[in-house]
Design a protein that fits this description.
The chain is mainly α. The chain has five helices and four strands, in the order ββααααββα. The chain is 60% helix and 5% strand. About 14% of the residues have low confidence.
């Protein structure tokens, strides 16, 4: 956090890369404090990810004009993509598919193992009461140890999920989010 000097001395600027200006609804900028890559109106310049898409659209228009023999007419500007088109493009991207694949690769097996472990506990409690009543240490029996194991498994699974998300998905998901915000910045205003 950094205190600004000048006419808005009471204003505070966040220099935190995790700070989400758009989600907080504070995306309005004066000409003096426009972010890098933005003009005086606060409109962002084309993001690096959108340049190849614009070039592809321009090439597609040129090919269409060449086929129809419409070179004499002035080229029409490409219609700006809607927010829905941008999100569909992101959803179809290999980076998004990889994030989803990593999520599924962890969640489905972990949920299956936990469900089987829970069902085994319930079935053993109903079908084998003699086994579950067997003492382990003093008044503690097998059923109590297995029940406490259910709690321990829940905490262990929560920790493993958070660790997996932090190490395998969060960075890629954040990059997708920032790219999507850059692409939709001009569409929303």
């Amino acid at each position: 956090m950094e205190k600004q000097e000048g006419r808005d001395a009471a204003a505070v600027r966040f220099d935190d890369p995790w700070y989400d200006e758009l989600a907080a609804g504070w995306g309005e900028h004066d000409a003096d404090d426009a972010p890098d890559g933005a003009d005086a109106n606060g409109t962002a310049a084309a993001s690096p990810g959108s340049v190849p898409r614009q070039q592809a659209q321009t090439q597609a228009q040129a090919q269409t004009q060449a086929r129809t023999g419409a070179q004499a007419r002035a080229p029409q500007p490409a219609a700006a993509p809607s927010t829905a088109d941008i999100y569909l493009e992101v959803q179809r991207s290999p980076a998004f598919q990889e994030v989803r694949r990593r999520y599924r690769r962890f969640v489905f097996p972990a949920a299956l193992v936990f469900l089987l472990w829970y069902l085994a506990y319930v079935v053993a409690a109903t079908a084998a009461p003699g086994l579950m009543a067997r003492p382990v240490a003093g008044a503690v029996n097998v059923a109590m140890v297995a029940g406490l194991g259910q709690f321990a498994t829940t905490f262990l699974l929560t920790w493993a999920y958070a660790r997996h998300a932090r190490l395998r998905r969060d960075r890629a998901a954040l990059e997708l989010r920032w790219d999507t915000q850059e692409m939709t910045r001009g569409v929303r205003r």
